[in-house]
Amino acid sequence: MFYDKTVLDNGVTVLTETMDNVRSVAIGIWFSVGSRDEHAGEAGMSHFMEHMMFKGTPTRSAQDISEHFDRLGAELNAFTSKEYTCYYARVLDEHVGNAIEVLSDMVGNALLADDAIVSEREVVIEEIARHEDTPDDVVHELFASTLLPTHPLGLPVLGKRETVGAFDHEASADFKRRHYRTGNVVVAAAGHVSHAVVVDLVQRMLDLPEGPRSERVEATPVVEPRIQVLRKETEQAHICWGVAGLKAHAKERFALSILDSVLGGGMASRLFVEIREKKGLAYAVYSYHTLYQDTGQFVVYAGTRPSNAEQVVGLIKDEIAKIVRHGITTEELHRAKESLKGSLVLSLESTRARMTRLGKNEVTQGECLSMDELVERVDAVTGKDVSELSARLFGAGQVLTMVAPFDAADVAHLL
After folding, report:
1. CA 392 to chain centre
2. Burial label, 250 (beta-carbon count in 10 A; 0-12, 13-18, 19+)
């Protein structure tokens, strides 16, 4: 195995991948909690907690934390998704112990002080406002909520103004108590460091309440054809067309990556060539897929002038139909495989990328494959696999969302 794994007596999982040819180390403390784990009254709390972990502990102020990592010449950051939260640092190998100690203090001993909560609520509300002013961001969130209107994965990671505006110390402390416990924690490290060293540091420094992994109710949604338009006086119509995708651990996920690459994964993809290169109808047009524990999504995005929206949606559907009817060519299959393998290799040349792969796979209960295993899975995909998958995916309920200067009734016929 290319990485080492230890589960401590208290339930914390430690993963490391040693890279002898670098001088840096990336360390991440991952929690298996995201926006899908929030109840209605705490929408946005996972992301809010990400902010609050940087706001001080009994022994360090927020400024102390920032200045500490600045002095180390280190990178310090965090991110929240629908299924997990991660706090990470990237440091020189000689500062690993220092970084783990401060990260552990941040997540284990955050004060969640009332004055910091009040100010940070306003920061997050400004972040929500900024997001709402960016239509090519909003349309993706609109798509998720339209595809999964009754599923927690349809909820926005940032939450809502009214819920965030009501967060206080009691609610924050209760959320932390329920989710920031040992069974939900994965510590991942990649770089010039030994597994034994990281295990020892985590055992000594990361002090969290003991408790089992939180149960997450899985629910495979039934997706029905839907259309949703957010009317906004934009210069472009921002379009998302798509369907429900695959679960994170589905064996067909490699065929899905090939399909995604051929359809809208780059400058040689069908959508880019047809919509941008041949017809000049969009600057940005691409597809992407997201895999979750119990479902997923496959989405095509395009931004075009409102007068061209109907034509662009028609072209998207035409290219989908061609793949369903005729599959992909041998040349497309080969090109997509080589592109994917190249992207995989390039993406894993940094310590942060390798740490992220370890942590994300473990915290979502996935399999972490070696580079050789990944290449083998990609090479094993056949044209028939892609054809069968496309027929199954695109034969289900299709969803269309737009942020544009018109109403849903104006484009209802496009679905």
Report:
1. 24
2. middle
Active site positions, annotated = 50
Q: Does residue 415 register a pLDDT over 90?
A: no
Mean of all residue pLDDT scores within the chain = 96
When pLDDT is cut at 50, 70 and 90, the band that residue 217 belongs to is confident
Q: Judge if pTM exceeds 0.70.
A: yes
Tokens of 411: 């484009």
In degrees rounded to 5, what are phi and psi of residue 144? -60, -45
Q: Is the pLDDT of residue 146 over 90?
A: yes
Percent of the chain with pLDDT over 70: 100
What's the chain look like in SS3?
A: CCCEEEECCCCCEEEEEECCCCCEEEEEEEECCCHHHCCHHHCCHHHHHHHHCCCECCCCEHHHHHHHHHHCCCEEEEEECCCCEEEEEEEEHHHHHHHHHHHHHHHHHCCCCHHHHHHHHHHHHHHHHHHHCCHHHHHHHHHHHHHCCCCHHHCCCCCCHHHHCCCCHHHHHHHHHHHCCHHHEEEEEEECCCHHHHHHHHHHHCCCCCCCCCCCCCCCCCCCCEEEEEECCCCCEEEEEEEECCECCCCCHHHHHHHHHHHHCCCCCHHHHHHHHHCCCCCCEEEEEEEECCCEEEEEEEEECHHHHHHHHHHHHHHHHHHHHHCCCHHHHHHHHHHHHHHHHHHCCCHHHHHHHHHHHHHCCCCCCCHHHHHHHHHCCCHHHHHHHHHHHHCCCCEEEEEECCCHHHHHHHC
- pLDDT surpassing 90 at residue 365: no
pLDDT at 396 over 90: no
